[in-house]
Write a structure and sequence with these properties.
Layout: H1 3-12, H2 26-54, H3 60-74, H4 77-85, H5 94-116, E1 124-132, E2 135-142, E3 150-158, E4 164-171, E5 174-175, H6 176-191, H7 193-205
Antiparallel strand pairs: 1-2, 2-3, 3-4, 4-5
């Protein structure tokens, strides 16, 4: 199984599934097609907004702040944060959860800033889009003047509020959401929850 297929298989475990009776009906297929189109438009806009933020004339600190704002609005940070911390969250105190939830957004958006540095300003091509449960995976390709193209997969979810948010961004076959979930689990096992939160707080400010 290649990395792309493995990521999809793992993510399918956390994807909310549509009712079986609704799947395959004309109305369901029409709705699915509309969801896919909306997800593609969302991925394009998020990319454009991120590019604008990171290529503006503002100082680097200002660019990063603008980029973090874009991702803060485009990512389902609560969903991603809960998934990354996994089962550990059940044993955390209210104070620990509050600290983690406060530290996570700047940590994650700064993490993605490094990933986006490779693709901003590059020509974007949507090469595939498919439904996965109630989510849509939009595969995009960024062509570079030198080197192989960079594939970026956007996992887009329509929330109960009606908003669409990205719950994962997979760059070159690597899902930060899955990688960090494993990393967080191992770190907690070795050093404890408080040490993990302190690390997230520090890296989010660096």
């Amino acid at each position: 199984m290649n990395r792309f297929a493995a990521v999809f298989a793992a993510l399918a475990l956390v994807a909310p599934m549509a009712p079986a009776a609704a799947q395959g009906s004309p109305a369901a297929e029409t709705a699915k097609s509309a969801d896919i189109e909306a997800a593609v438009a969302f991925a394009k806009k998020l990319t454009a907004d991120a590019t604008t933020a990171l290529t503006s004339s503002r100082p680097k600190a200002g660019q990063l702040a603008d980029f973090q704002k874009v991702l803060g609005e485009g990512l389902a940070l609560d969903v991603i944060g809960k998934f990354m911390i996994g089962e550990t969250r059940k044993s955390m105190s209210e104070a620990q959860i509050a600290r983690y939830d406060a530290a996570f957004p700047p940590y994650l958006t700064k993490l993605y800033a490094d990933q986006f540095a490779e693709i901003v300003g590059r020509p974007l091509e949507v090469v595939d889009a498919k439904a996965l449960g109630r989510d849509v995976i939009v595969r995009t390709r960024f062509n570079r003047k030198e080197g192989a193209p960079i594939n970026v997969d956007w996992r887009v979810r329509a929330l109960k509020s009606g908003e669409r948010k990205a719950v994962d961004i997979i760059v070159s076959g690597v899902s930060i959401m899955l990688v960090k979930r494993e990393e967080f689990s191992a770190f907690v096992a070795q050093s404890g929850v408080d040490a993990l939160i302190a690390r997230i707080e520090k890296e989010g400010k660096a």
